[in-house]
Amino acid sequence: MTTIHIPEVALVVLIGASGSGKSTFARQHFSAFEILSSDYYRGVVSDDENSQSVSGDAFDVLHLIAAKRLKNMRLTVIDATNVQKESRTQLMRIAREYYVMPVAIVIDLPDSVCIERNRQRPDRQFGAHVIHRQRRDLKASLHTLEREGFRHIHVLRSEEEIAKAMLVRDRLWNNKRDEKGPFDIIGDVHGCYDELVALLLRLGYTVDPDGHDVTPPENRRAVFLGDLVDRGPKTPQVLKLVMGMVAAGSAFCIPGNHDVKLMKALRGRNVNITHGLEQSLVQLEVETPEFREQVAAFIDGLISHYVFDDGNLVVAHAGMKESMAGRAAGAVREFALFGDTTGETDEFGLPVRYNWAQDYRGTATVVYGHTPIPEPEWLNRTINIDTGCVFGGALTALRYPERELVNVPALQMYAEPKRQFLPEAQQAPRLNAQQQLDDMLDITDVMTLDGIGKRLIDTRLQRGIQIRAENAAAALEVMSRFAVNPKWLVYLPPTMSPVATSTLPDLLEHPSQAFEYYRTEGVPRVICEEKHMGSRAVVVLCKDETAAQARFGITDEGIGVIYTRTGRRFFADPALEVVFLARLRDAATTAKLWDDLNTDWLVLDCELMPWSAKAQELLQTQYAAVGTVASHALTHAADLLRATQTRLPEAAAVLERYQMRSAKVTDYIAAYRRYCWEVMSLDDLRLAPFHVLASEGSVHVDKPHTWHMEQANKLRTGGDPLLQATQCQIVDVTDDSSIQEGTTWWLNMTEKGGEGMVVKPLDFIVRGKRGILQPALKVRGREYLRIIYGPEYDIPDQMAQLRSRGLGAKRALAYREFALGIEALERFVRREPLRRVHECVFGVLALESEPVDPRL
Amino acid sequence: MLLTLSTTYTPATDLGYLLHKNPAKVQTFDLGFGQAHVFYPRADEHGCIATLLLDIDAVGLVRRENSMGLEQYVNDRPYASSSFLSVAIAQVYGSALSGKCKDRPELAATAIPLEATVVGLPAQGGEKLLRDLFEPLGYAIEVERYSLDEAFPTWGESRYYTLTLRHTIRLSELLVHLYVLIPVLDNDKHYFVAEDEVEKLLRRGEGWLANHPAKLLITQRYLKNQRSLMQSALSRLVAEDTPDADDAVAKKDQEESVVEEKIDLHSQRLGAVIAALKASGARRVVDLGCGEGKLLTRMLREPQFGDILGMDVSHRSLQIAAERLRLEQLSTPKREQIQLIQGSLMYLDPRLQGYDAAAIVEVIEHLDPPRLSAFERAIFGYACPTHVVLTTPNREYNVKWESLPAGQFRHKDHRFEWTRAEFQAWAESICARFGYNVRYLPVGTEDALVGAPSQMAIFTCTGDAA
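YS: structure for the whole thing
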């Protein structure tokens, strides 16, 4: 019985003459999706599986699909004759492009068998000469397959052998997805044994005096990033320790370029004895030949890189591109050992390295070493932890998943670095590497360039939020023309749905429906917050400019920003904003918010009054204009009707109608006037914060709304009149008297002309049966709705038409925008790259351009 | 929504015959968009006032429009005297409009003293336009303008008027004038523009329109295309900031051109840009911020530019550009020569790499100064065209424009305007940081003291970035 081993991800090329039984073999050993049959694609493009004239088109499609499958790490089997080298060239190219192992399975049966099988198939009537030619090509191919790059070649020569063949899929060596840690990942040791022991002790490992027996703290394991050897004083001791740990299963190790070169030297290959290899060889000279052979075998057996923790963690000596991670090919190993080299060398004779991490867009965390740097820094979810211990720096470990860095300083400088890796020692740049990179965002991070595709954003609260191309296009314009510096823009507020339409005859909205919604979703208590009629404002506030620079990577743009729900700066006058922010900063200082929250920055969700401050133009061109023309026209009409009525009593009905209309317009004008006042100076503005969204280390969505109200009230301890309180009331939605109180509160407020209230569950995020609940519902007052639905909306015939309003789309948007807004903040707090934060904020803006009834 | 007609002709009640509406009744007519009431506050021997009052169904209006801007809901249409009034005149006073009168045919053909009052009349162009439209037709006119809100005097005046016209004229003529000129004054949203509108205008304008001094304006506005029903997503987004984003885009070109029109600066500027691009020897060119495609049109005429890319951040502008360039009608090779894409100067964009030259014409002044560095890095640091031809207004020249108040920019959306020294200092810093060298050209006729109206910098990549 023949056992055929193939890697779990491979490009399997079946090779055999027509009629040799490739398709039957494929069906026996592979699943339907895995098999790409040339005959099938002939059929796909021409309706005829045997049409030779469409071979070109059929293979184009087949190759495209093969490429997509390999990109997605799917085993793919090519069921075609593949007897000519030319037909395999394109396949090899695809395998190389996606770093997938090519495997050849040759089915070499006598011509007679093939001819006979073809004869039995009515659709296959080509002459014997075709089979002869294919066999001839096949025989020739057998000699060249290895040269072409096939890593595994299996030849089956008889029907019996074919029938008995067993196929075994081997896991890729680098696939350690089921190893979830926790890990302690240790950077380039380079023979620094004493520092390594010190580091292990700091990490809580116990190490016996001769370094043979290392015990990790419970469940933890070490991961060595390679370059154990060379330059340092105690390479053999380091090797013994690491080899012992790996053998004991308490450590993983991947090879570094120095280790591989040492192995080659030990195996007698011709390598340059430079860059510290000489020290290693000298130190190993005193060891036994057996030990040297063990070292060579150990290094030889190391796997280029590992993928851990369900694919969330990748470790490699010099880094790993997203397109290569978890794959097996020569190029992948080269990259793991040497990184992205440009082939050039610099003035020190060292290779010029291309910083692949700048372009990294993968979701996995990549931890690597290889290039000594002064301080480990996160860049696009990658981190280099080689802090140059052997050059007098430090030996660093990254604890995963904690992401804590632990290091021990070098006891001395064991080698002189060629290129100063601590450049102009104390000249740290103003911005860190991620912040500098974040200065520019890439358009492909926010939209697809073909103008038709959609983007999907995964958030903690909701997976796969879709951003359609046309919405992204609208967002791109607003973001580019009007938005503030994207580094400030860490949040955009979500839209909010109104309550379901009231069942009362004369009201469109009433608190009952809000209480009912939360009650039926299992929420016992809600908070009702006064809804201010101003404009939504997000305030990003730092303690000082140093904090703005350190945390937001923004220099010379003050201590913060105030922006609208579309990300636009609130104040056209920069001087006004500076004073405004300074007063808020002082309020936060007086309130001791900086200390209480242990932060030097805050993101506040607020309402800024008056409405006229932002919406002046809208008010004048729309609201006041409608008011003035309506009141003139209706008054005039009523006058004329009154005069007519004295002549003709039958005019009374029309007169009554116009008097009523006229009264409604008067109410309408009164309604919008309440939200307008002249702003002569800052003191005429009012800011009502209602969420303290985030501060250093936390997004405060884990706290109840009562906490947020308390913080907002604290801000007013200094008594700055700029800050306005938000009245609120807690309602037990299972208690009639409490519901009555809440309703009365709303009625009193709205009768005085208030906009209404917002009802929220006490907790910021509540999950119901079908995902998260609406985070808030607005209940707007009768007079306020006049400026939304039109002056005369509550005339019975109009009201009847307005009652049928669909809330589904609005609510779906509210969920999605809420999830995106919180995700943006959480990513920011986790110090993810700006593009990851921006993607979410951009998503909110894009969703805001969805066509939804704007009156809701 | 309200039109009164009165006469002092004796017997005044004959007005009822002319209008075909009985003064002794309050009558109501159903119209497609609501109802019209006709009644007479006065009807006696010496005076007769006929009122046409519209009752427009506001909610139904929005439903029919099927559009999504908030402005559709709080809307002046139910109250203003707009094209709806014209429709009502045609439907309710149809026979009077065409000069027919069964009972008093000779009176219908006679000029009689008439007074018409239109209430809530929006006039884009104000009192001057009201006079320009009606005075050449022989009317004595009286106007009352409404303030926006007397509680907020600083908000100023609205665009609505009560207009009173007096003339001794045939009733049908008066009605025809109102029928045509009310929508012209409103110039906003026509709800009844149909295919036969041209014919209708010719018929209604017979005998007076051809000799009217404002005939061009009347024709243009009357036949104004119906607003696209598809409200762009953008207009919903910025509803709070700009009431109508589409109009804002359209006004942008207008506003600037009003200031600059005297010297046809725009055309000179495009000419100079084309000259600079041609001189650079560029074959692959990109117009960054191509707007509605004026420069692209000229680029397309130059065989030297074998590969043209137009980019703008506004989807709406690109649509207009595509129409202007007649992209759909171009021959295949021409069509392949040019491409339009939506993109932004604020983001790195791989599609912009590899061009011989980029034109950036009157664009940077629309960027917020703090965002300028993103633009610099995206274009000079990343896209790296070999040549960059960039123009921006010369602020010093603004004093030469009488219509421009001192200290004000040429356009509302300009975030800054630079003096020549400021511009050159910026350009030098670009060169130092990104490895370009630069020369400058004035655009438009130079003034000895303040320079040319617009300024141009031509950057050429030296290949050694700092």
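YS: worth flagging: Chain B is about 35% helix and 25% strand.
IM: good catch. Also Confidence is low (pLDDT under 50) at residues 66-71, 225-255 of chain B.
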